[in-house]
Amino acid sequence: SFVLTIFVAVLVIACPCARGLATPTAIMVGTGLGAGHGILIKSGEALETAHKVDTVVFDKTGTITEGKPKVTDIVVLDQAETSDGLLKLAAGCEQMSEHPLGQAIVLKAREQGLELAMPEKFESVTGAGIIASLGTSQVAVGNERLVEQMKVSMGDPVKEQAHQMANQGKTPMYLIADGKLKGIICVADTIKETSVEAVDQLKRLGITVCMLTGDNQKTADYIGKQAHIDTVIAEVLPEDKANVVESLQKQGKTVMMVGDGINDAPVLAGADVGAAMGSGADAAIEAADVVFMTSSMDAISEAIKIARSTGAISNQNVVFALAVKALVMILGLMGIASMWLAVFADTGVAILCVLNSIRILYKK
Q1: What are phi and psi of 137, to 5 degrees?
Q2: Cβ contacts of 44 within 8 Å, gap of 6 or more
Q3: Which of 177, 213, 236, 330 is most buried per CB count within 10 Å?
Q4: Pairing of β 55-59 and β 208-212
Q5: List of residues 6+ apart from 164 with CB closer than 8 A
Q6: What is the pairing mode between strands 290-292 and 39-41?
Q7: Residue 329: pLDDT over 80
Q8: Are the beta carbons of 190 and 226 closer than 8 angstroms?
Q9: Residue 59 annotated in active site
Q10: What is the pTM of this model?
Q11: What's the average model confidence in pLDDT over 194-204?
């Protein structure tokens, strides 16, 4: 009878209920807390990985910035043209573009009451701009990369003028018609009010902050300096963003990528944790592991804090459950542990793990 009692006690102690509940309960409470803060965490694996994140990479447009750029300057380089004429030409072509910079040009033209003709042909050049046929003219609107691809000459004074604008955080868009550079339309995107504080919060958590953008280096550096970014990586083509994240991962970093555009979907899927703004493109939201239902940057540090709290509580649960079971198991094998102590080591510890997990809700 004594041997049978020891056998049953050890069998009860060995029941893995507490160990099985240790992590899932913490994750369940963590994801619930995230939902309460407008943070949709799609899986327990994403939450577990998020607490290890040491590098956050931001896409600039729509994440660091508002994603609603505005036309600030129109520089006429051809004396036969006017600023309204250049704007009308560029906006007509950009009507078929989904890029925020192109939409800003169209919006400016409509605000000025200009009548826009639809282009007969339209081609988007990834990471460079657009080329379209408007009436009898072939028109191109894009960055310096597009100017080089089309082999259009651009004098040093024009380059200097464009670089000065870039130093002020503006993005120069070159307008080319029939192989000649007609003018420059500058577009600027303002930084979100929450960006600076959100970046500083991440730094206080010991996280390195990077920014990826297709903008020229000077514009990117200006935005990066304003937002207190650690590392700015500019002039990156959409298809190269995934390579940048992959190179960071090869350095042993755990990377969270934050973006909101259609072009961000592949890099969000390739990062350790992909995070998308709820106001972003559907493709980005679908590919992301974490979705911030607001466009506020504060949610990013909040998500990492929740993940870290969840990870710490989960580890506490596992260690506590295994330690108590090991101790009571030894006592049981020695015939010292009673059946009541065995039940505590199983059901009691499981309940304590659940109660400990609820502490996540009350951590600051």
Answers
A1: -105, 145
A2: 23, 24, 27, 31
A3: 213
A4: parallel
A5: none
A6: antiparallel
A7: no
A8: no
A9: yes
A10: 0.75
A11: 92
